[in-house]
Structures are given as structure tokens and as C-alpha cells.
Amino acid sequence: PRLRATIGGSPLLATADRLRIPFARPGFAADHVALRLGPSTRLDLATLTGDFARGGIAGRYAGADGQIAAVPLRMSEGAGRWSLLGGSFAAEGGGRLTHLADRPLFESLVSEDLRLRFAGNLITATATLAEPGTETAIVDVDLTHDFNAGAGEATLDTPRLLFGERLQPDALTYVTTGVIAEVNGLLSGTGHIRWGPAGVTSDGVYRIADANMAAPFGPVEGLDTEIVFTDLLALRSAPGQTATVQRANPGVLVEDGALTYQILSSSAVRVEAGRWPFAGGALILEPTVLEFGPGKVQRLTFRVEGLDAFAFLEARQFENLAATGILDGVLPVVVDQGGARIEGGYLVSRPEGGSLSYTGEISDVNLGVFGTLAFNALELIRYSTLTIRFDGAIDGEMVTNVDFTGVTPNIAREGQSFLVAGLTGPLSRLPVRFDITMRAPFQGLLYSVRLLDDPTFLVSEAIARHRAQSLTPAERDVQALESEPMP
User: Fold this and answer.
1) Buried b / exposed e across 116-135, counting CB within 10 Å, b at 16+?
2) What is the CA radius of gyration of the chain?
3) Which residues of 410-443 are buried (b: 16+ CB within 10 A; e: fewer)?
4) What is the pLDDT of residues 67-81, one digit of tens each?
5) What is the pTM of this model?
6) Whether pLDDT at 368 is above 70
7) FRET pair for 470, CA 20 to 30 Å: which of 105, 106, 248, 486?
8) CA 322 to CA 359: how far, in whole Å?
9) What are the E-state strand segments in 21-135?
């Protein structure tokens, strides 16, 4: 069969490969039915059956596949019941919704409660779409289309979507893959898609509440933000979106921060500004554009302003290490497939300088004359310049260089040897420069510094390494046998 009609001024063409009308009962069955309304609205049905009854026709359909106008959404695998009663067409069933794009923005969603009604040149439809793997409800859809105007609108409502052990964002979209993981938080919001003779537009407002996640630069806790999308289908937002973060840990814990940003597309975000209070000063994220995808490299520059050395150490409970002074600096962070690393980061003291004091116990291991003087000098250093440089992986080895110059008023200690005591007077009036290089995982760097509370362990380990390197092969074998436990 080949049928032609007009709906709302738009031409309708209906065809089928075969139409069967049985003599035994009043009804029909058709295969491969194709409906074409206007230039771009279509519906294909693998099978369509119907029985004539009082007041109209009712039957079943299967293999439904369709798209409305230029909206880049496709409903497929549809099946269910339909009826045409009193001039009103209705259908109930299920199906699968897919985003039509070279790289779909979201994974396919399924519905088991699709309801559609067509009367008076107006189509209305509702459905709840769910993630097929977990059957978690994602969005409620409410759609209308006016054939007279050739225009319509779909409202997408997500009242409460919880991410956690059951569902992660990468089950819904590729956008978050490699960007965030282990997400725990709440998403809610409403979006709109509108279409007509002038084209397709979309917008929406979505909120993320109290979200925790793992990011390439470290864990994030307590993220709250509201995103105003100017183009929901292209995933573009207005500028000036604001997010607050309770805690983030890019190697050093920062709290109560705020970000302003703009989502440029499904794979790019412009960071306009970021700021966190940090040890009496501020940690500032400079403007940048983050592009996500295979092979993309992210570059973030964190600026440190007014870090108070005393507040920094006090907050981390260093019992035997104290310092004063204000530092500024820059921490360039590079994030790629290999992880996150700091390249050429540094902190520099302000011209007024400060003081550094180590008050822990000195080991009784023989450090030598100048080793003893060095530890004594650390009892109180008034430095004029202090520079700390960082290079290395945030989740791997970090090379940290600490360089400071100053004077020590009194490096003498009770019970020192005559030679050491004789040197303390002249040395106390000379500038002393310390150049310390540490190699350690960045996340454990502060732990390494805290080992200064018990330098005996560090000094003993260094002496043991030196002695082991000076042993002959035969002596090493004897030492290895002696260290083995008895059976």
C-alpha cells in the first residue's frame, strides 16, 4: 500500500512492504511500515497489527524507529500497544533513546513507560528514561509537537540523580572519562529542547550538590555548583558559573575554595578564576582552558600569595620545627595521560625574611664537626632569603630544593667539644647558607619533613648506607648471613 494525506499543512506519506487483511476477522497486519511527515519527521515500524472494534482500531507495534524534525534524538527498538479511537491516536510501550552525533554526548537510555497521544494536530508524549545497566531512572521527558506550527518542545527533568557505588557518570557519558572518577554526589535540574522552522535550540539549569570525586590533580570533596546551559545539546554554558569546593588536595590540603568557569563544549572548560585560603594567604588558579580527550595535555598555574610559614607549619602540627616569614610563588601543574606533575614550581620569601628553628633532639651519632655545627645552627636561623623549588610528579617522586641564607645568633650548645665550641663564636657572625635537596613522593613530602622530629633515624640510615657501600663483596656476604633470622 501507498497512502498520501496532509496533517497541519504538512504532507504525510505512509507505505508498507505488505498489508494482509484476513477474511476470518476484521483486522489487518503490515510489515515494514514507513511514515514520513514533512521533510524530516519519520517513523518506521517493523510490524503493525490492528483489529477493528467499536469506535475505532487497536493493535500492537514492534521495531519502532523514529525521529521528530531536526531534533538530534532517535527513538528505536520501540514496541507496545496502539489505538485510534474517536479521532485520537494513542500508543504505550517502551524503547531506546539515542543521541545522534558523530560522538554521542550521552549513552543510550531506555524507557518502559512511553505514552504518546496524537489529536487535533498536536502530539504529546511522556517517558521516564533509565540507564539500561542499572535501571536507574535518569530523566523524565515531557514532549509536545504542533503540526500546524511545525514546532515543539521537550522538557527534560532530573529531580534527583545520586552518583555512588551503583552508578557513575561514565556510564551515562564519555565526557567524564579520564576527567573525574569515584564520584559521590547529587545531580538535579531541568533542561529544554525547542524546535521549529528556525531550527533547534536548547538550554537548562543543573545543580551538583555535596559531590566528592577523584580528579587528576588529587581528591576533591564538597563540590557545589549550579550550571546554566545556553546550549544543552552542545553542552555549552554561560560564562561566570561558580563552584565552591570544601576541600581539595593537590599534594597539600586546601579548604573552602571557589571557582568561576565556563563550559565551552563537551570537551573544553574555560577556568576564569580559582581561589582558596591557604596558610594565612591564598592559592590562586590563573585563567586557563582545559581540553579533554585522548592525548590532550592540561596546564594549570597555581599562584601562591602571602603564605605564612608559621601558620603553614602550625596547621600541620610540626612539634619541633617552627618558622616565620611570608612567601609567594608559582606552581605550574601539567596533567597528561601519565598523571600530574609540577614543572618549575617555586616559593620565595619576601624581602623582610624570617626565621627558622629546629628544636628537636640531636642524635648522639658522631656527625663530625661541621655536621654538628649544621644541626646547631638550625636551632635558630634568621634568614634573609628562602627559596623552595619543586619539580616532579604529584603522585610520584618530587625533587624539592630548599635554599636559604641567614645568620644564627648562637650555635653553641652545652657539652660540645673544645673545637666545636671554639668555632661557634666566629661562625655566629657569618652568613650561613643551607642548600637541601629532597627526593620523595610529593604526597609524602610533609611526612619526610616531620622525620626531622627524630633525625637519629635519618642520620643512622645515611651512615648505614655509607658503610654498606664501603664493604668488600666478602664482607657483604658475611653481613647478609648474619642478618638472616635463625630457623
Assistant:
1) bebeeeebebebbbbbeeee
2) 35
3) ebbeeebeeebeebbeebbeeebebeeeeebbbb
4) 887 788 899 999 999
5) 0.74
6) no
7) 486
8) 8
9) 27-37, 41-53, 56-67, 73-85, 88-99, 109-119, 122-131
